[in-house]
Amino acid sequence: MTSVVEGLKPEIIWKHFETLTKIPRPSKHEGKILAYIKKFANERHFEIREDETGNIVVLRPGSGGGENAPIIIIQSHVDMVCEKNRDSQHDFMNDALKLYIDNGWLKADGTTLGADNGIGVAAAMALLDLPESTPLPPLECLFTVDEETGLTGAFALNGEIVKGRTMLNLDTEDWGEICIGCAGGGDSSINLPVVYVEAPTDYLSFQLSVEGLKGGHSGVDIHEERGNAIVFISSIIDDILENAKISLTSLEGGDKHNAIPREAFSQLYIHPESVSDAQNSVANRARALRDEFGTMEPNIDIKFTGSNELPNKCLSDNSQMELVRLLRTLPHGVLKYSHEVEGLVETSNNLASVKKINDDINIVCSTRSSISEALESQRRRIRIISEAFGAIAEQEEAYPGWAPNINSPVLEITTKVYTELLAKDPHICAIHAGLECGVIGEKVKGMDMVSFGPTIKGPHSPDERVEISSVDKFWDLLLKILNELSKK
């Protein structure tokens, strides 16, 4: 069977990436990919260091004249966000991804692709696979775990397993950008106690659904003001409550804390005399949402249909009112842009998920900011809002941002090589997303870092895709930077 990536350049990266797509690697379930990397390193007789969390470092000695150069850390994370379309039967714990090429982009059929950060992992493995004559400094290829659910691997990193103090992070997703800073962030897990009562026997059962939204990364895509399915569905239910007699039995939407919700669903009972009013409310709100988001969300699909499901419990009138109003009050989207860097989102919040856990309704918000005080201010705001509706917001310690250093030696080298290679300057930037650089920089003092990578669109959604041509340019840049660093 012909490989989908056959003939793509650089062959060495695509070969490794295709292998990665056959190995299940959901966040918190990285055992298979870690075992593969260790086997790969052992077969090449490379030293391996490992910490208790599962982070591993594979050491490649300097070569081609770079034997005595300073150690360079090549950093990537092995886990991937596992999102799929509702009609997909894909099993992320066992199945290989199904790849295809669409107009110069590599995609996966109905699921996330895992190019975030699989391309970075593949590039690190490709470096380890290069001939011994290749001009390279000593490399510490650092593979971290569980980045996507809160930078867990980076937080728990034992800094003793890395000796280098210059790091190339391969997790930036816009070719041509050299990232030198990122936002910090922290999640809020909001638990709303609710009361369930016997469902009315004379009401009719309906399902309300919001589907077809783009979703995307709650950091790098938040400025596009894409639709949020939880925001949409709660606004529709709020309107129904104003005009009809209903009893809410369930409301769920979203999944990952760092993904903008694409879908949301609600099961509800409606008094027979209120059905027409409820249908009008849904139609009016759907029309308004299409008018507001139509060009951004052309595939928005809002359905309100009769249901054969007949749950025997529903929320009390007070509980359903508290839930809907809490969802309507919690912030979502860009909260502030930077005054210093034009176009850079400074502070945002993602209303990420809502679901039933035991007897409570759990809501997750993911807040980001490049200003630590602003981050904590917004997290306190979320606590205050939650308490006003009788909920409790649990918040773990936020992860740190990465402060830009425009005088960074590795930035100077990277910029020089990029300009010589492409005859134009790179875009030096900071991003509104959590990179492991911020946490690793706190763990290992004195670390000099930059981040770059190929173009990846739609990360954390089934629309994820990587631009094939940018991978070749990214690889060329990486090799030339390391060639330059091997001369030090």
Could you give a short description of this structure?
Helix content is 30%, strand content 26%. The chain has 488 residues and is an alpha+beta fold.
CATH fold annotation of the largest domain: Aminopeptidase
The CATH homologous superfamily name of the largest domain equals Zn peptidases
Major beta-sheet overview: 6 strands, mixed
What count of domains describes the coordinates? 2
| Largest sheet strand order | 1-2-6-3-7-21
Radius of gyration: 24 Å
Structural class: alpha+beta
CATH class of the largest domain: Alpha Beta
Give the SSE map.
Elements: H1 11-20, H2 31-43, E1 47-50, E2 56-60, E3 72-77, E4 99-102, E5 105-108, H3 115-128, E6 139-144, H4 152-155, E7 166-169, E8 177-182, E9 184-193, E10 196-198, E11 204-211, H5 229-243, E12 246-253, E13 264-270, H6 275-293, E14 301-306, E15 313-315, H7 317-329, E16 333-337, E17 345-357, E18 360-369, H8 372-388, E19 392-394, H9 409-422, E20 427-431, H10 436-443, E21 448-451, E22 456-457, E23 465-467, H11 468-485
Parallel strand pairs: 3-6, 3-7, 7-21, 8-20
Antiparallel strand pairs: 1-2, 2-6, 4-5, 5-23, 9-18, 9-19, 10-15, 11-13, 11-14, 12-13, 16-17, 17-18, 22-23
Helix pairs in contact: 1-3, 5-6, 5-7, 9-11
